[in-house]
Recover the amino acids of this structure.
């Protein structure tokens, strides 16, 4: 069955960096686009970024554009989110999610359990 | 595209049938998904393409609509159905979610 396991979350000071990872299993990773979605404490879901199956096409929410970079290593079966210049309002649970297709305009079908990121001095 | 759900909170009893509405600020055709989230857990897929059930989701859940107005209906509520529900459009970037509807036990 499809499983997505995030790692790399933690407590980080404002202005610092953090890299999240997502390890998929149960499907052929290099044929699916992937997403990051976050949820601030007590708040709703916010889409962060996605990347096409081959890693060429990437899209970002305006709130993270220029600070976050989504990437993937299909040879290592891993999805990444590099987060730079972190701010307090980036504090959230970060979910890795699978798209049902290889590119844009496909739904999210499976979610990981999330990894918490706290930005605080 | 802004997604607006109503109501924000809904109180219902076991056995009830409830409907949640989601409105898009512009036409999204049928690029609309619904998710269920329980406290401390990851969201789970319910419906995509406005009306197609995700694999394994019981038929008590149903979705309808196209363009800008959509509904999620849950029939014969059971204790495990009390959760928060989100709509999401995936037609246009940035992908956007509704603010959520919390379904409480009355």
């Amino acid at each position: 069955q499809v499983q997505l396991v995030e790692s790399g979350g933690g407590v980080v000071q404002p202005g610092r960096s953090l890299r999240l990872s997502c390890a998929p299993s149960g499907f052929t990773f290099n044929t699916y686009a992937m997403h990051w979605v976050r949820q601030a404490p007590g708040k709703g879901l916010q889409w962060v970024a996605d990347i096409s199956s081959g890693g060429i096409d990437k899209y970002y929410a305006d709130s993270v554009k220029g600070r976050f970079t989504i990437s993937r290593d299909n040879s290592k079966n891993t999805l990444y989110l590099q987060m730079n210049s972190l701010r307090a309002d980036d504090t959230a649970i970060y979910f890795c999610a699978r798209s049902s297709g290889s590119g844009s305009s496909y739904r999210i079908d499976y979610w990981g359990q999330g990894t918490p990121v706290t930005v605080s001095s | 595209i802004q997604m607006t759900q109503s109501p924000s909170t809904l109180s219902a009893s076991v056995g009830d049938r409830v409907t949640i509405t989601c409105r898009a600020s512009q036409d999204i055709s049928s690029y609309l998904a619904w998710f269920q989230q329980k406290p401390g857990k990851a969201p789970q897929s319910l419906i995509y393409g406005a009306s197609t059930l995700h694999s394994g989701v019981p038929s008590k859940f149903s979705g309808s609509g196209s363009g800008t107005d959509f509904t999620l209906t849950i029939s014969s509520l059971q204790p495990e159905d009390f959760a928060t529900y989100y709509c999401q459009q995936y037609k246009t970037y940035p992908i956007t979610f509704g603010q959520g509807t919390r379904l409480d036990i009355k």
Notes: The longest strand of chain B covers residues 18-24. The mean pLDDT of chain B is 97. The CA atoms of residues 36 and 72 of chain B lie 11 Å apart.
